[in-house]
Write a structure and sequence with these properties.
One of its GO terms (molecular function) is DNA binding. With 127 residues, this protein is mainly α. It is built from four helices and three strands; from the N terminus they run αβββααα. 53% of the residues lie in helices and 12% in strands.
Length: 127
């Protein structure tokens, strides 16, 4: 009986170690995500890191002759949004396989996250 128990514990330990390694690899991959997008005319490039932080904005000198200040600001924001969307989607694809059964990625990392995803339903005292 003790041998069966020991074998079960060892098997579970191997599975846990495999999961931990998978999580570590995914974490490293998520932290390495970076997205650089460039406007169609090639005048604006934006690089965004894994948490959506803007890491670089490169402007070609021609952009100052083409766009007014408000147009330039809008064009930069458009590139930031494109890069952020790309990073978010790549992060989702990496993380989704690690999500517990019954828990969706957007429930944990989406825009409108609430505690509801982590808490059991309310208990009805009259039941």
């Amino acid at each position: 009986m003790a041998d069966v128990f020991q074998a079960t514990v060892e098997k579970l330990a191997v599975q846990v170690n495999q999961q931990v390694q998978r999580v570590r690899e995914t974490y490293d991959a998520v932290n390495a995500i970076e997205s650089t997008v460039t406007s169609a005319d090639g005048t604006i490039s934006v690089t965004v890191g894994p948490q959506g932080q803007v890491r670089a904005i490169d402007l070609n000198a021609r952009v100052y002759r083409k766009l007014a200040a408000t147009e330039l600001a809008a064009a930069i924001m458009e590139q930031i949004n494109r890069a952020t969307t790309d990073v978010t989607e790549r992060r989702r694809r990496l993380m989704e396989p690690l999500m517990p059964e019954g828990l969706r990625y957007d429930q944990v990392f989406g825009e409108n996250v609430t505690l509801d995803a982590f808490l059991p339903p309310p208990v009805d005292p009259d039941a």
